[in-house]
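Here is a tokenized protein:
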Amino acid sequence: MRESDERPWGRYEVLEEQPGFKVKVLEVKPGARLSLQRHARREEHWVVVKGVADVVCGAKELQLRQGEHVHIPRETNHRLGNSGDGPLEIIEVQLGDYLGEDDIVRLEDDYRRIK
């Protein structure tokens, strides 16, 4: 059985995990967004497969559509959101020496999950 988790913004499912990389599908509800965050031990690459993604990556703010992608370097503040009316789905590829969910430093969060 694949690892998956419900979150306030939607859900994710792990499609593949091997030493050094993890592949997830993220589904973001309309009007929702993930926390503004960064990671110390991994970088991420996002590919939009459905919907329009509102992306913050460092100082850049982007809107990405199906087939478009962005690379998020390690230690870069980033956020993913869905300001559209329909679902947003992205494929996230994580690369690094540690890929645990506890390597998230939340800087801002709509759901009050900052410690």
